[in-house]
Amino acid sequence: MQFIFWAYHMRRQFFWLLLAALFLNFFDRTIGLGGLKKRVHWLVIPLQKGMVASGVKLSENVGFLLDLPVVYRENRRLRAEIINYQKMELENEELRRENASLRQQLGAAEAPTPKIAPVSVLGILQRDNEDFLVVAADGVRGNVLVLGKMLIGEMVSISGDRALVRTIYSPNSRVAASVFTDEGVVGGLAEGKNACEVFLTKVLADSKIKKGDLVVTSGMGGKFPAGLIIGKIEEVSVDEEGIYQSARLGAGWKMGELTTIFALRGLAD
Q1: Which residue stretches, if any, does this entry annotate as coiled coil (predicted)?
Q2: Where are the domains of the chain?
């Protein structure tokens, strides 16, 4: 309030100074105030300086008042960004705690990230009612094959420059699995059925699994590292005895579409 009163007072002062200057200029042009100007020069100069100073101060303060809404909006925007960053940090911290808890439940200790090496897929070989991937053996040292974070299978034999890979679709494939549900982690067994099908079995009937739940390797048995994606549940059914549930999984890849997969090194060199 005090600032507004001061601004109003300065505007009145500027008005009277401007009026006085116009009055003197008018009489100078009509009557001539040459002699008088010399006598009152000491008065005119301070008036001119006062007008300039008052005008500058008034324009500066008016500009400041006009900028206040912009400054206020920018301040609110910055405060909102800070709050948003704080929320993101809290969410990240919650995810870190959740991952640590899940890792503890799965019994998976922290381990160095294994190296990977690309492996060319040459074709499919059917032997004893089982479909194998035929891959180039050059550079293959680990026996676990993946595509991104998805488990493909394990290398079972090498002959010359070629190797055979038993995929998770094989009827002879058994992988210890874990299901991430809304209520926690549930254990089970992923079994292949050929024809690009894999099922989750040995899940107790009272376990709350549903369509869309993620199924990963549990790490039990030591054959496969924990956390590799086997697939997502597409359909759930209960056996006739009502003891176990089974679920058909969607693995997200097909044998005939693979051209390059990757061997994990540092696991079983």
Answers
A1: 78-105
A2: 2-104, 112-269
Distance in angstroms (rounded) separating the CA atoms of residues 162 and 133: 10
| CA torsion through residues 231, 235, 240, 242, sign | positive
Alpha-carbon span 117 to 109, nearest angstrom:
23
Within its chain, how far is the Cα of 198 from the centroid? 31
pTM for this predicted structure: 0.57
The residue type at 28: D
Residue 266, classed as helix, strand or coil, is coil
Given a contact cutoff of 8 angstroms between Cβ atoms, the answer to whether 226 and 267 are in contact is no
Q: Which tens digit of pLDDT belongs to each residue from 46-105?
A: 555 555 455 545 555 555 556 667 767 777 777 776 776 566 666 666 666 766 666 666
Range 112-269 has CATH code 2.40.10.350: yes
Cα-only R_g, the chain:
40
Residue whose entry in the numeric block shows the structure tokens 């003891």: 243
- Alpha carbons within 13 angstroms on the beta-carbon side of residue 269 total 7
